[in-house]
């Protein structure tokens, strides 16, 4: 499969791994960008972007990066904390009075960003079409009691994270979450990252497709078993309430809405550039970045039923848990996205990595393709 782009010869082994990934019969397309101390050493892409296999992946092809966009929204909020407009430990009801309903009056931004708020899923079943109605979904979150005592445990919030942080951005920053990301992050640093696509960006989006016959790891199998055995349970609702959450990725309505938990779109170059800007203290001052990557949650995740470790809006390295390891270094942070996307940075090596793909694998945390690339990068740096 043809590969375009540029690559430093010192990283040829990592490029070989990327090439091998593209040779898999179920792999449609992908892009990889690696930056070291602000310098781009790999910026490559290859494959196709459509189901028919007729459209080649281009330099500016955009792909849904799913939860890999969560840290981008977190940085917007942490910037507002630095500006004194938000506080990590002030109850959210100070900014959003309605949020207090059903015992949520003590939940803080720190709880939300570290997945300790007890709100990983909406309790009341929602109709499929409600997914695209912001006011409806925010009201559904407000009307959901915490699934556990906030701060006493943690459980990943795949979608409710976006409605909560997005509504905070709307109320405090006075604009939609995607607009805040564009104004504060994407435009100033010329990053091809979007939450809510305009007409020009829509013409560059590739479709995502599930890979067939890909083996799931133990964490993924355990999650699927829980969801299948308890279809009305918290975990199942976290991923499928509304049910359209599971089937909307290639729909126009999904691409244009501004749901910062799951519908960010970008290039690998844009995602890697985001982490480089973080490492260089351009998006956050060093003390706020230190707070972001400080461990806030660790251990059994009540949603994912596996071990997770979170900072503020980012997932931290777990070297002893293969499905949750970046395979890059102990000081790595970032976030995987559904099906294979990964954006991350290694503070020690000043390394930023972004792997994006339109071919969805079966892993719930780190995808083996991205792990293979990272493991080779570790040897190259």
TrEMBL record:
Q: Where is the Beta-lactamase-related domain?
A: 20-370
Q: Name one GO molecular function term.
A: hydrolase activity
What's the superkingdom here? Bacteria
This entry's Enzyme Commission designation comes to 3.1.1.103
Q: Recite the UniProt keywords alphabetically.
A: Hydrolase
Give the PANTHER family listed for this entry.
BETA-LACTAMASE-RELATED, BETA-LACTAMASE-RELATED DOMAIN-CONTAINING PROTEIN
Q: What is this protein called?
A: Serine hydrolase domain-containing protein
Q: Which organism's genome codes for this protein?
A: Denitrificimonas halotolerans
Per the UniProt record, the lineage of the source organism begins with: Bacteria, Pseudomonadati, Pseudomonadota, Gammaproteobacteria, Pseudomonadales
